[in-house]
Amino acid sequence: TQELPVPFMKRIGFNIQRLKTRPPLGGTAEGEVSAEEALRTALRLGDSVLIIGEVRSVEAKTLFEAMSIGAVGNVVMGTIHGESAYSIWDRIVNDLGVPTTSFKATDFAIVGTQIRFKGTLKRARRIIEITEVLKHWNDDPEEEGGFLEWMRFDAAKDNLDLFQDNLKKSEWIQKIQRNRGLKFEEMWNEMISRGETKNYLVELKNKYSVPRLLEADYSVRAHNKYALMEEKQREEHGSVNHKELLKEWRKWVEESLVRELVAEKPSKGK
Known about the structure:
By secondary structure, the protein is α+β, with helices and mostly antiparallel strands.
């Protein structure tokens, strides 16, 4: 979409390609193709991440075809209007005509909305639901237990509650365990550790008043450094000590990224 800052994303290291698509209504301009044709072109680009904004027409079938056969190789994501995992399934299957068997290629439904806390007029955007789509059901995922809720938003606490016991029933986690030879504890520690990296960036942003720390160029550098440090631990020790990894990574972030941003801030009185 036009909202994506493609030139900027290329500058910070993303190998990204924009395809201009024909609007759903009205005429066409030179070089424009249908959304479905653009999607099929993207699938021929090889292993990549594919993100489709506003899934609302015939391109939905192509998107789920890509998810079903693993054509992209990494991640396939799309945005669609829906207030819950069930309403997303209902819209995709009953409104857009995607077969239920194809919808099962979805791993997760993540729902976001605007919340008005305690009846105020101010709105705040929040993630309110993270639900895994299980694979062993036939017709109706809600009636047949096809949804496994991971997290649900509690407005009173302004927090996402985690249903940790449900993770042990997760087919997605079991699949990753089989394919990568990981134990549940190893996967859990990895998820917690990565969450800690995000929390730490927010803490430092508030502590030093450096909002740019959360923007793409710095968050990408922080993520890449974490991944490199983790890989180094695996190569040297055969496993990951997340406590030591986080300690080393935090030190690097503060001495490198934060120091760089603080140095750029104008001095008081200037």
